[in-house]
Amino acid sequence: MTLTKNQITDNIQNKLDLSRTEAYDTMENLLEIIKQTIQDGDSLMISGFGKFSVNEKKARKGRNPATNKEMTLSERRVVTFKCSGQLRKIINNLN
Fold first, then answer.
1. Would you list the DSSP string of 2-25?
2. In the prediction, which pLDDT does 62 show?
3. pLDDT of residue 26
4. CB 62 within 8 A of CB 72
5. Residue 42, C-beta contacts closer than 8 angstroms, at least 6 positions apart
6. pLDDT value, residue 94
7. Which residues of the chain have pLDDT under 50?
8. b/e sequence 20-39, b meaning 16+ C-beta within 10 Å
9. DSSP letters along 48-95, please?
10. CA terminus-to-terminus distance, the chain
11. Which of 16, 53, 78, 89 could, after both became Cys, cross-link 94 (CB 3.0–4.6 A)?
């Protein structure tokens, strides 16, 4: 199941008793803070949830599996997520 922005907005609206516009703006502002922090290359840790980190990948040789042709994969930044122990327990029903 995918959780959409509309569903998140509905949850915020219901839990915080906000108007739909206020709930949507709250969600968008939070996402913008997260995106900006990651774009700047900083890690973002949300207590009880997990940590988003930006890792640098160096250029390397690779292979196209469809054609078996060698190619160079350019350097890039990737985002990784590591969930907190608390979230891991909830996911695995280990309360």
1. PPPHHHHHHHHHHHHT--HHHHHH
2. 92
3. 96
4. yes
5. 54
6. 73
7. none
8. eeebbebbeeeeeeeeeebe
9. TTEEEEEEEE--EEEE-TTT--EEEEPPEEEEEEEE-HHHHHHHTT--
10. 23
11. 89
Measured between alpha carbons, how far is 9 from 77 in angstroms, rounded to an integer? 30
Please give the pLDDT value at position 45: 96
Distance CA 18, CA 12 (A): 7
Single-letter amino acid, residue 68: N
Sign of CA dihedral 34, 37, 40, 42: negative
- Within 13 Å and on the Cβ side, how many CA atoms surround 24? 6
Q: What is the pTM of this model?
A: 0.75
Yes or no: say if 9 and 25 are a contact pair by the CB < 8 Å rule: no
